[in-house]
Amino acid sequence: AKVLIILAQDGTAIKPAVAKAVQNSVPVIAYDRLIEDQKALYITFDNVLVGKLEAEAVFKAKPKGNYAIIKGNKADANADFLRSGMEQVIGAAVKSGDIKIVGETYTDNWDPSKAQTNMEQILTANKNQVDAVLSENDGMAGGVIAALQAQGLAGKVPVSGQDGDKAALNRVALGTQTVDVWKDARQLGKSAGDSAMQLCKNTDPSKVSGTAAFKTPGGNTLSSILLTPDPITKDNLNKVLDAGWITKADLCQGVGAGKASACG
Known about the structure:
This protein is an alpha/beta fold. About 40% of the residues lie in helices and about 20% in strands. The protein folds into two domains: about 5-45 and about 185-230, Response regulator (Rossmann fold, 3-Layer(aba) Sandwich); about 50-180 and about 230-264, Response regulator (Rossmann fold, 3-Layer(aba) Sandwich).
C-alpha cells in the first residue's frame, strides 16, 4: 500500500500498526477518529465545534433545568472533544446553578440501544424530571428519543445529535430532535482522497495543502484538516434537501402539514 486511510474504532489499539506502517514509509490518514501518532494526518470535522453547535441549539430551547449528557465511546477521543465544545456553552449556567447535570454517561461503541438504556436509567433516577438531553450523535439520539417516547416526553424535551443520519433529519422535521449537526461525509471522503494523492508524491503530512497543527489530548502535535460542520434545525432543513443529501420522501415521512416548512 502507498497510503493507509484508517477509521479507528479504538485509537489506542491501532497505534502499533500505525507505527509499523510509518516505519515502512507508508503514510497514514486518521479518518474522522484521532490516532495519537505525530506522523499521521488527522482529517475530521471540527468536533469541538460540533459539540458547541449541539449545545447551542439545546441551550437556546432550554436555558435552565435538568440536563442529561449522553456521550460516545470512552476510547474515542471524539467523545471528549464533543463534550468540551458543549462545556463552552453550558459551563457558566452549570456553575450558576441554572443548569443541573442529573446524568452523564459514556456509551460503549456509541450504541443506540445502550444509549436508550442509559437514558431510561437517568429518567428513572430523576422521576422523569429531565428538561434537555445533549446526545453526542444521531444514533444515540434515536435511543434517547425512544426512551423519552416511552414516557410521553418525546418532542417536549430538546435533544441534540450529529452526523446527518436520514432517520435523525426526519426526527428534526417531526420535532422530536432539536438539532442535527450535519457533517457532509462527501467532504470528508473527498478531503481524504485528495490528501492520499498528495501523500503518494510526498509522505510528509505537513506538506498536504490545507493542513494546520493540531494539539491532541495526549500532548502530540499532528498535521490536521478540520472541516466545518453545519447545524440543521427545523428552520433550515432545505439545506440538506438542496444538497441532495436526503430525499423529500425520507425527510418528510410522517410529518404533518405545516409541521416543517421544508415539507410543505
